[in-house]
Each structure stands twice: as C-alpha cells, then as structure tokens.
Predict the structure of Iron-dicitrate transporter ATP-binding nsubunit.
Amino acid sequence: MILDTATQVTLTTRKLTLAYDGNVVIQGLDLAIPHGQMTTLVGPNGCGKSTLLRGMARLLKPKGGTVYLDGDAIAHLPTKELAKRLGILPQSPAAPEGLTVRELVAQGRYPHQNWLQQWSRQDELQVEAAIATTHLHDFANRPLDTLSGGQRQRAWIAMALAQDTETLLLDEPTTYLDLAHQIEVLDLLYHLNRDAGRTIVMVLHDVNMACRYSHHLIALRDGAVIAQGHPSDVVTEALVKQVFDLDSRIIADPVSNTPLCIPVSQSL
C-alpha cells in the first residue's frame, strides 16, 4: 500500500537493504512513515522489525539503499544534527549503576552541547519539562535501578524527550513490563503524539495493543512489508494467518473499537 500523495511523511526508505554478518534481513525495501502519527511495526520474531528500526535510526549501516529524514539522507547528516532531529530508544537499554533519573534525562541534552555552549538554562528547562511530562518528579533524584520497570521505561523516554526531537523511534518499549505498566507507557506515548505532535515509530509484539494505539500499522514477514495502513484495514484473519501462521478471529475491541485478534488454539 502506498500512502496518499497528500500525506506528509517523516521517514522514508528507498531500496533499503540491511544485513547482519552478511545475512540479508531487509532487501530493497521502499517504505514511508507518516508525519505526526503513531506507526507500529508488527510481525513474528526474526521478521526484521528491530533491524528496520535500527536502520532508520542509523544504528545499522545499510548494505544498499537510503533512509531519508524529512527529505535529507541520514547517512550524510552530521551525528549531532541527526540526534537533534531523531531520538531512538533501543530495546532493554542499560545505564551505569547508581545513575539517577535526572542524570539520565540530562544525557538527552548532549547533542545540544559543544565546546562553546555548555549546560544552559534551556537545557535545564528541557530536562525539567521531560521529567514533568513523564510524571517522574518524585523519582528525579532516585537511582534508576531502584525504580519499577514502568518507572525506568518512563525515565528512558524522558531522556529521549529531553533530546527534543520531533521524531521518536522505540524498539519494544513494553518488553518485560506487566500489563498495567504496558498501558502506562503506551498511554504516555499516545499523549506525546496527541499533545506535542511527535511522530512516533515503535516495534510491538502485541498486535492488539498495536491496533489500539496506532494510526498506521506495518506488518512484516521475512523482511518484507506484507500490509500497511490503518489497523482496521490491515488486521484481518487472512493477514494474521499470512504473517503469523496463526488461525484467529477478529472482533471489535469493546473499549477502542479497533481490531481485536483472538487466537484460535488447535488444542481447544
């Protein structure tokens, strides 16, 4: 599916090929990420979701093709300029032991520092705003490793917010979180998109959560895009079978009216 020509895009890939140790994961991919929306990549383990996200963030050098950010080839952007425009939260990030929440969030301001401009009042304001947005004021001076999983994930998101980029990429931001903390993190991202207009691209394993929170869904299998578009147009019983090799029934989510995938077990 090609986005409507009137749709503004933020990230695009042209004939993008990505590989690890010579093993091609993504081959010749053309893709467009809509501006100002929440886009989620879904698919089975090993299908290339995280690889694609890393390629779009310039954490993985392409074997071929190009990634563009607002029309600029990211391979040609200076590192600090890219970091001012694109934030990335990798899967299961790690921080030095003893680092406090405020110290972690302050690291998001490093792209804005140089030898002429050290820590400024603007940096301080951005850090405090990020802490407030993620509701971490009461935990700001606590070591990161004393927080719950959901609180730690909010702290990492706060660091990305302090970076003050218009676009955020998040690789499985709800991994290892219980259901309540998953909702907490996804609600936060939803409000960042709705209230601040951030373009958010994330990888999720839970198709139902992806449907509930996304404007745009991209389903991948074996490094190729099988379908993309609004969740209501993408998530069908045929699509779930094709992508996940799983029989299912699709009904309307009684809360959000988005597609709700009910797996069909062969044992029941």
Remarks:
- The mean pLDDT is 90.
- The CA atoms of residues 40 and 187 lie 14 Å apart.
